[in-house]
């Protein structure tokens, strides 16, 4: 499990590093308004990816891990249902492109949404391959494919330079499509190699309705994630003026999502790991694994959004240019918002193993009713800063509600070591904020990266000295 976790973390680090290389190139070669178009297209795709990817992937991973049904039948029917969902979203993007242009006040979006439609089926098949590998506990294979994908996405840079000089937005979309197709081929080859593990020793066939219910339950829950991580950008595009603010907000969102991307490594693994323990009727081991995950997150992940939140202006100015400083307060909020959302997802993944998906469904419905109007009102009255603050408050509340739902089934999950790590992170925020406000005014990206690395190393060193966590032996044991 730990080896798979470390490899998935490495995969996610490669994912955001490659993504930042792409955004650094785009943000420094395109006008803010054009960069905002890229952000808008990617935001809509992220929303659809959340719905398509996590529902099928998590449902498939859970059912294969628990081995309640015939594995081959589970895979076949999951693919069938995924194809139905893919068809719906393809039609929405391709045939609804003019409507997107009207709603988002930009008729040039029509062409790009039609290209984006072809990314939907490619992504839908790609995530199924990841879910199957995770279900058979092949976390290393899943991590390898997930690592290759962001590297392959870097093809957008030569495509824009040499092929799509006059239309960089189309170049981004074509590059992403080619990367997905390449990884689908790799995923199919990996399953051929591990095909013996896809044969179950028996088990009844799963009902198609069960597959649909499980997939949609996970998918509907991830609408909450999509709304908070994606809809705010669309609201900015629709109601905030001038148009350049969308580009500035896109810059803030790119760094704000960092902690969420890192935490996907945890809730990708925690679902099948806990599901396997529950399937073996070993509740104590399942709870122990959850506590272990929470400690690792508090020590190794939490300080990252904390440092970004406390030094947001320096980061945006260093990575882009001085004009992006206007989005610094938004980034301070979004960095913590994404962490809270990552915790919300992880806690709901745990909850689904101890109970039905009903709580996640209710949480999704309430969020659907509340979040979108909240973003619109915040955008009209307070611009991008208020929208980001609304996002942070929303995710904090969903995290608290999710934790309360989980501990009703498991008992308290907050250990003394987790509490020490959280207090340490709060202290770290205050120290970094003071230092960057009074002493450290650097806008050199490499110097800033060095300061971040030093702050992170000091924090981890303090945690190790306080015996909150043992490193590196604990993480590298396998």
TrEMBL record:
Its main location: membrane. The chain crosses the membrane at residues 5-26, 32-53, 74-99, 111-132, 144-164, 176-194, 215-240, 260-278, 290-312, 324-347, 359-378, 384-406, 418-439, 445-469. Pfam families: Polysacc_synt. It is found in: Cell membrane. The keyword Membrane applies. InterPro entries: Poly_Biosynth_Transport, Polysacc_synth. The keyword Flavoprotein does not apply. It is a multi-pass membrane protein. It comes from the Bacteria. Keywords: Cell membrane, Membrane, Transmembrane, Transmembrane helix. This is Oligosaccharide flippase family protein. It comes from Bifidobacterium saimiriisciurei. The lineage of its organism: Bacteria, Bacillati, Actinomycetota, Actinomycetes, Bifidobacteriales.
């Amino acid at each position: 499990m730990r080896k798979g976790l470390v490899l998935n973390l490495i995969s996610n680090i490669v994912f955001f590093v490659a993504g930042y290389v792409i955004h650094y190139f785009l943000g420094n070669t395109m006008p803010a308004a054009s960069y905002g178009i890229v952000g808008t297209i990617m935001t809509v795709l992220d929303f659809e990816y959340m719905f398509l990817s996590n529902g099928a992937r998590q449902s498939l991973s859970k059912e294969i891990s628990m081995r309640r049904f015939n594995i081959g039948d589970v895979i076949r029917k999951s693919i069938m249902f995924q194809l139905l969902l893919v068809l719906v979203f393809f039609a929405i993007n391709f045939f609804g492109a003019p409507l997107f242009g009207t709603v988002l006040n930009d008729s040039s979006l029509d062409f790009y949404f039609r290209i984006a439609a072809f990314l939907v089926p490619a992504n839908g098949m790609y995530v199924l391959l990841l879910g199957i590998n995770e279900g058979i506990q092949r976390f290393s294979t899943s991590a390898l494919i997930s690592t290759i994908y962001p590297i392959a996405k870097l093809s957008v840079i030569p495509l824009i330079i040499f092929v799509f000089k006059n239309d960089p937005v189309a170049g981004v979309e074509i590059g992403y499509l080619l990367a997905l197709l390449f990884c689908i081929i790799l995923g199919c080859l990996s399953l051929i190699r591990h095909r013996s593990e896809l044969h179950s020793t028996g088990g009844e066939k799963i009902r198609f309705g069960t597959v649909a219910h499980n997939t949609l339950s996970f998918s509907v829950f991830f609408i909450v994630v999509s709304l908070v991580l994606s809809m705010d950008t669309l609201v900015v595009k629709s109601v905030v003026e001038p148009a350049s603010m969308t580009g500035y907000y896109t810059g803030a969102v790119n760094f704000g999502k960092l902690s969420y991307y890192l935490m996907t490594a945890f809730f990708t693994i925690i679902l099948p790991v806990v599901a396997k323990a529950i399937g073996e009727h070993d509740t104590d081991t399942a709870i122990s694994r959850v506590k272990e995950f929470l400690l690792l997150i508090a020590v190794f992940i939490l300080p990252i959004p904390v440092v970004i939140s406390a030094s947001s202006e320096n980061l945006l100015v260093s990575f882009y240019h001085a004009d992006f400083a206007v989005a610094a307060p938004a980034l301070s909020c979004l960095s913590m918002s994404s962490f809270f959302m990552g915790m919300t997802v992880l806690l709901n993944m745990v909850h689904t193993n101890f109970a039905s998906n009903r709580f996640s469904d209710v949480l999704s419905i309430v969020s659907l009713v509340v979040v979108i109007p909240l973003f619109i009102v915040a955008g009209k009255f307070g611009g991008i800063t208020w929208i980001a603050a609304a996002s942070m408050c929303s995710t904090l509340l969903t995290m608290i509600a999710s934790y309360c739902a989980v501990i009703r089934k498991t008992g308290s999950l907050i250990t003394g070591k987790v509490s020490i790590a959280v207090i340490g992170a709060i202290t770290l925020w205050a120290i970094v904020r003071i230092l960057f406000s009074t002493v450290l005014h650097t806008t050199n990206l490499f110097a800033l990266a060095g300061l971040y690395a030093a702050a992170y190393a000091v924090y981890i060193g303090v945690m190790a000295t306080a015996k909150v966590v043992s490193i590196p032996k604990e993480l590298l044991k396998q």
